[in-house]
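User: Predict the structure for this protein chain, please.
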Amino acid sequence: MNQAVKAQTNDSFDAIKEAHTLSGDSEKIQEYYDKWAVAYDRDVSNEEYIGPEYIVNFLASLKSNNGLKAIDASNKNIEILDAGCGTGLVGIVLKAKGYHHVDGSDLSEGMVEKARSTGAYNVLESGIDLTKINKAYEDNQYDATVCCGVFTLGHVPPTALSELIRITKPGGWVVVSTRKSYYDSTNFQEVCDRYQQEGKVKLVNHVQDGPYIAEEGAHYWAFLVC
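Assistant: Here is the predicted structure, written as structure tokens:
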């Protein structure tokens, strides 16, 4: 590896790690990602980020089984929200797979502007904080809500799952990635178990330590909304 490429790769790694120090402060996260939007795609590509492709394939595999009535996620006409869409990497994969009705949301306007340029989304919303109830979205609005790269250190607490559940239809899917270090450092499992005990969701599929980024893997979760 020549020195220029090595330096760029090191910069990419540092940018990703700095994002993990934002302590869940929405203003800091928004400001950081507004500035990072220009270089984000390059930086995550340098770190071999394949979470978007993996999570879309994971979503597309979901359907009714074991007597559960569920939306067939392989149906290309379902309505999907890419929550925390960033620059649109998940949306690009969804479009390539033939999904026609995809919306996106993110806290950062800078990231949403990049996502808009992909042409993968019908409607995009910025200023969406997943730790709150967002008036932009009605209860039970989407057939599937996908959230990749958001449940990571320094970003949102595990309880942000509740907003994803709220906007997803009964029988619909909430599909998320949790970076392994995030899962190990938070009470995500406890929250997951509690929401199941409360009858909000049922965990239907779970992949441990799946492909995500060069540094580490992620767990992938498919919740059926009750």
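The radius of gyration is 17 Å.
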